[in-house]
């Protein structure tokens, strides 16, 4: 992978979705917020939400019910800033191996793996946490009143406050 300044790094949401819910037959559904993604994959599907997409208030509300997953970034500390030189999705699925696809040039600076938060709300029940506590929605033909009722019922049934 080409080195990217950490502040400019964006996850590959399709890759994260497929590592989580299976490859093949993957398609995306538009959402109403930039950098909020919904994917349907071969085994499952749901929302892939980069940490930077949520506001501080939304993250505070969500953390009572849900913890983000971590992907790992290989960061090289260079004189002109920290660069992402590798990405590993091994933390989010046990069958995904840590990437070896990175270019480390030792004389440019030291490198280390760091955790990077990503929120994965699967389509069966976790989605209700996201939709109840934020305004993020995927495009749907369902009328608003009925949709809100389903969100509320699913949230009430499945969302548990962390202890």
* Multimeric status of the protein: single chain
Could you estimate the helical fraction of the residues in percent? 10-25%
Largest beta-sheet details: 7 strands, antiparallel
Cα-atom Rg, whole angstroms?
17 Å
Q: What would you call the structural class?
A: alpha+beta
Report how far apart the termini are.
40 Å
Stretches with pLDDT under 50, minimum 5 residues: none
Task: Please tell me the total number of domains.
Answer: 1
- Look at the structure and give the mean pLDDT: 89
- Tell me the fraction of residues in β-strands, as a range: 25-35%
Global outline: elongated
Give the topology string: H per helix, E per strand: EHEEEHEEEHH
Structure annotation, total helices = 4
What does this structure look like?
It is a single chain. The protein has 163 residues and is α+β, with helices and mostly antiparallel strands. The protein has one domain (4-158). It is built from four helices and seven strands. The protein has helices spanning 13-21, 56-62, 127-133, 144-158; strands spanning 4-5, 27-29, 37-40, 45-50, 69-78, 81-88, 111-122. Strands 1-6-5-7-4-3-2 form a seven-stranded antiparallel sheet. The longest helix has 15 residues, at 144-158. The protein starts with a strand and ends in a 5-residue tail after the last helix. The mean pLDDT is 89.
Brief digest:
This protein is of the alpha+beta class and 163 residues long. It has helices at 13-21, 56-62, 127-133, 144-158; strands spanning 4-5, 27-29, 37-40, 45-50, 69-78, 81-88, 111-122. It is 23% helix and 28% strand.
């Amino acid at each position: 992978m080409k080195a990217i300044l950490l502040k400019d790094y964006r996850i590959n949401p399709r890759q994260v979705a497929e590592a989580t819910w299976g490859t093949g037959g993957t398609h995306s559904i538009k959402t109403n917020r930039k950098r909020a993604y919904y994917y349907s994959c071969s085994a499952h599907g749901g929302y892939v939400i980069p940490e930077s997409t949520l506001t501080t208030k939304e993250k505070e509300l969500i953390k009572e019910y849900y913890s983000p997953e971590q992907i790992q970034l290989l960061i090289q500390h260079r004189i002109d800033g920290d660069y992402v030189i590798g990405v590993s999705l091994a933390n989010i699925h046990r069958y995904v191996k840590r990437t070896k696809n990175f270019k480390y040039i030792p004389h440019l600076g030291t490198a280390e793996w760091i955790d990077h938060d990503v929120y994965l709300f699967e389509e069966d029940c976790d989605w209700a946490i996201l939709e109840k506590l934020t305004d993020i929605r995927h495009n749907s033909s369902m009328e608003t009143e009925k949709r809100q009722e389903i969100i509320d019922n699913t949230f009430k049934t499945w969302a548990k406050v962390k202890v």
